[in-house]
Design brief:
Blueprint (H helix, E strand, L loop, with lengths): L2 H15 L1 E3 H8 L3 H13 L3 E3 L3 E4 L10 H4 L5 H11 L7 E4 L3 H6 L9 E5 L2 H7 L5 E5 L13 H7 L4 E6 L3 E3 L3 E4 L2 H12 L1 E7 L11 E4 L6 E5 L4 H9 L3 E5 L4
Helix pairs in contact: 2-3, 8-9
């Protein structure tokens, strides 16, 4: 099989399954794993995919359309769970924290501390519903027009959040890169999260590996405004180094931590 034919087959696989593993590809095509890595590197340089430690994932578009709730509000991947578990350790006694309505925020709920009292501000009805019976958590929900995908992010919600002061904001988005900062698939979501960042003492970004090095439609905040990035073990090292050079503290979560 010629190299071009092999790369075409790899591209077809990644389009259908959204992720491939170098070892599995090497076994399937009966070539060395170094050959596959060179294929993946070349394809990344051509803008066809995004490399990871173990293989590659499909390249994200700058817009992401609404995700099915069964996927959005699920148990999450091992990468998301590792990031969420590490993030929860940041919550201290007496804190006021912002938790949005993204899938990583839903997973974060599993790891919220129960041995201390704190306040949660959310713009998600689902997150608020999950928190209402937690005796150690005082929950406030942002007011405004309800949107299924991003929670409450309209101008009323943005004005309301600006009246508050928050200790720690757990931010996320479609992507984060050294060049473009934190970004979102919609301007409305980006504007709302920017307002959250403005009233928060500490900004913590939760981004599993496939978001790192990715740029989405609307910029949320520059990296200079971000304090901490929590990602996982498959995030690209080169991009993490560039992000660290901007002054952001980078924490890498591992599956067994």
């Amino acid at each position: 099989m010629f190299a071009e034919e092999r790369r075409d087959k790899i591209l077809s696989k990644i389009k259908s399954s959204r992720r491939v593993f170098a070892k599995e590809l090497a076994d399937e095509f009966q070539v060395s794993i170094d050959t596959i890595r060179r294929d993946l590197t070349m394809m990344e340089e051509e803008g066809l995919l995004k490399r990871t430690h173990g293989g590659a994932v499909s390249l994200s578009k700058v817009r992401r359309f609404p995700m099915d709730d069964k996927i959005r509000y699920s148990e999450g991947t091992e990468h998301q769970n590792a990031v969420a578990k590490l993030a929860a350790a940041y919550i201290e006694q007496g804190d006021t924290v912002f938790i949005g309505g993204a899938s990583i925020h839903y997973i974060l709920l599993k790891y919220l501390p129960i041995d201390r009292d704190y306040t949660v501000i959310t713009n998600s009805l689902i997150i608020a519903e999950k928190l209402k019976n937690h005796g150690n958590i005082e929950t406030y929900i942002v007011c405004g027009k309800i949107e299924r995908e991003e929670g409450i992010v309209d101008p009323l919600a943005t004005e309301f959040i600006r009246t508050l002061r928050i200790d720690k904001a757990f931010l996320t988005g479609g992507g984060i890169s050294a060049k473009h900062g934190l970004s979102s698939s919609t301007p409305e979501g980006a504007i709302f999260q920017r307002a959250v960042a403005e009233v928060s003492r500490q900004k913590v970004c939760l981004a599993n590996f496939d978001k790192v090095g990715t740029e989405f439609f609307a910029r949320t905040i520059d990296l200079r405004q971000l304090d901490v990035l929590i990602t996982d073990w498959e995030a690209p090292d080169e991009e993490l180094k560039k992000i660290q050079q901007t002054g952001v503290k980078v924490l890498v979560a591992y599956e067994n931590d």
